[in-house]
Amino acid sequence: MDRSTSDNKLYGILAEFRNPKELLDAAKLMNSKGFKNYDTFSPFPVHGMDKAMNLRKSKLGWIVGGHGLIGLVGGFAMIYFMMVVDYPLNISGKPLMNIPAWVPVLFELTVLLAAFGAVFGMFYLNGLPRLNHPLFNSENFKKASDDGFFVCIESEDPQFETSKVETLLKDAGATNIEKIYDE
């Protein structure tokens, strides 16, 4: 398929490597050269890749914890309003604020809202849903879920220069280098 740069915007340059060790070394090289907008793709997690790419810790834990806390406080406020303020009902002389009886509901609301926070927080942090990605246009990239190891440097990166990136990837040991266009 012949593409002209005037019709399509360059998304980035995709490079394939032979094995996880070469992919890890390439990620370390990209990081040491100051690239920020790049990602690696492999059929399985590569130990040490997040350190090689100098990735920050995920914010998902804070999102889940915050939603769990909202569930706990919201559940407590809801039960307190219903049992003490709105419809106080004295059962067998027990206190109106019978917290041990509230524990199952508080636990379930905490877990429920934390689970929602985990799912929707993951969607938000991963930029999902995205129905198509420019990398899906590459026939070679289909191997990423089977036996391919890839690095893609995006053209949005401040360090990006096509010839410089291609030379760097070639020197890093890439077996196949391909320009990816955003359609």
Main pleated-sheet profile: 4 strands, antiparallel
Per DSSP, what share of the residues sits in E-state strands of 2 or more residues? 5-15%
Number of strands: 4
Please tally the helical runs, counting DSSP H or I stretches of 4 or more residues: 5
Q: Mean of residue pLDDT?
A: 92
- Provide the structure class: alpha+beta
- How does CATH name the architecture of the largest domain? 2-Layer Sandwich
The ordered H/E elements are EHEHHHEHE
Helical content class = 40-55%
Taken from the alpha-carbon principal axes, the silhouette is: elongated
CATH class of the largest domain: Alpha Beta
- CATH fold topology of the largest domain: Alpha-Beta Plaits
Please write out the topology.
Blueprint: E1 9-17, H1 20-32, E2 38-41, H2 49-52, H3 60-86, H4 99-125, E3 149-154, H5 162-171, E4 176-182
Antiparallel strand pairs: 1-3, 1-4, 2-3
Helix pairs in contact: 3-4
Describe it.
The protein starts with 8 loop residues before the first strand and ends with a strand. The longest helix is centred in the middle third of the chain and has 27 residues, at 60-86. It has helices at residues 20-32, 49-52, 60-86, 99-125, 162-171, and strands at 9-17, 38-41, 149-154, 176-182. It has 2 domains: 9-42 and 148-182, Alpha-Beta Plaits (2-Layer Sandwich); 60-125, no CATH class. Helices cover 44% and strands 14% of the residues. It is built from 5 helices and 4 strands, in the order βαβαααβαβ. The model is unreliable at 1-6 (pLDDT under 50). α3 (60-86) runs antiparallel to α4. With 183 residues, the protein is an alpha+beta fold. It has a 4-stranded antiparallel sheet with strand order 2-3-1-4, covered by helices on one side.
